[in-house]
Amino acid sequence: MKTKDEAILEIRGESIGIVTESSSNEEKFQNLTLRPILKFQNDLCIEVFRNYATKQKGVFFTLSPEKKMHYIENAIQRDIKFRNSLKGIIIGMFTITEYNEYILNSSNLNKRMMNLLIERLKSQIQLYEV
């Protein structure tokens, strides 16, 4: 029987992006861990954002595309509860080894994580219509 960590690595798939000898530890973590998790959890993140926007009186759905981009960024950067919820969705897919690596540099990795998520959500803005 597989361990939980083995199962997590299997369902997430391969790394996304190039990792070389000269890659920084943060860049390696981003491409080996964060990008595959964000891809795997993409549909859930979209649904979580759609629910968030609906609960915020649905203003998001009336905005122009440019203002929607700004709204996504602001929601993730300024709403700490929402951001922490999204972080939990991602961190929950870490292996124990990855978590131990994450806690060594969580501040910088959180910035990378949220920036990647913001860009991913913005690039799929057409999927948010209710």
Number of domains in the coordinates? Answer: 1
Secondary-structure element order, N to C: HHHHHHH
Contiguous helical run count: 7
Shape: elongated
Alpha-beta classification = mainly alpha
Number of strands: 0
- Helix content range: over 70%
End-to-end separation: 42 Å
Average pLDDT reading: 92
Reported for the largest beta sheet, the result is:
none
Oligomer: single chain
Beta-strand portion reads under 5%
The low-pLDDT segments are none
Rg computed from alpha carbons, rounded to a whole number of angstroms = 16 Å
Protein name: Glyoxalase
Organism: Flavobacterium sediminilitoris
Give a structural overview.
- The protein is an all-alpha fold and 130 residues long.
- The protein has one domain.
- 71% of the residues lie in helices and 0% in strands.
- It has helices at 4-12, 25-40, 42-55, 65-78, 80-91, 96-104, 106-123.
- Helix 2 crosses helix 7 and helix 4 runs antiparallel to helix 7.
- It is elongated, with a radius of gyration of 16 Å.
- The model has no long low-confidence stretch (mean pLDDT 92).
- This is Glyoxalase.
- It comes from Flavobacterium sediminilitoris.
